[in-house]
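Milestone M4 deliverable, item 7.
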Amino acid sequence: MRFVLSIIMPCYNVADFLDRAFNSVLQQTMTNWELIIIDDGSTDNTWEKCKAYSEKDSRVKILRQKNRGQGAARNFALQTVRGEYVTFIDADDAFLDYNTFEVAIAYLDSHNEVDVVQFPYVRFNKRGIIVPPKKLNAVLSSKKDFIESTDIVNSVAETPILLKTAPWGKIFRSVLFREVRFPEGMVYEDTFMFCELFEITNRIAVIDKGLYGNYERDGSTTNSRPSAKKMQDKIKAFCRIHQSLYRYSDDAVKKRSFTLWLLKLVASFKGMFGKEFDVSEDIANLSKTENFAYDRKMIYLNRIGFNRVIRLLSVYYSAKWTISSPR
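Output delivered:
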């Protein structure tokens, strides 16, 4: 059977949520897909449920590996895809419109210049929807458009388009992943992946049809208790965004705003974790960003030294965390 779409779903101890994700794929109006499920070393009965799905439907392929994280699991699956297109689903999420595959692939089939389609998404938890869908129609056609429209830059300097740096909620031409892989051994690996993807992507379309549901689960990777390691990975990912922003954007205000916001974020984590938190190498690279010469405020900040600014700010944030923490 020729598969048009390969769906990649990494799993780790999510047995209680798998039925929702699996059924949302099974009920799609487009049927020539393959679902590649990767059990990332689960210790509950996730693997048993995955085997049951593969026995129920021949389009389901199951893989298993030792626990190495989502990036490694996705990379493992990418080696085996057979579809012309590829999409990703987190095991506790769901495709909420049954024609999501159909409309997104129809768009790609009729727009050969577009490499990625993002469709609307909602965020929900056990109490219901917490972020309603934002329905947009736009085509991003340059690296400047890509980076300036990301959700991370958007959080500092709002732009008209919101491009999620998560792999879910999109369909990609699978040829892109001949060159691109997810970094392994870190969280926020998808942000790194997107920065690499931007380098080889022609156009990204944001459409108003289809729907993805992102479930905010207590204890998930992004919603679990912050740690120094996790926040270090977050800063590394944001520094990668910063690098692309300075390389491709000509908006001095946006670049300066993002730099200052990133420095405050680093200082707040330093104040929270102290010596456990070390991103000195990232900050050294950050301070070497080109084009500072065109902004007086950034020249002054660079002369003071980013590390010194962070040390001073971290004292403030440390006191703030101490005061706000319950005794």
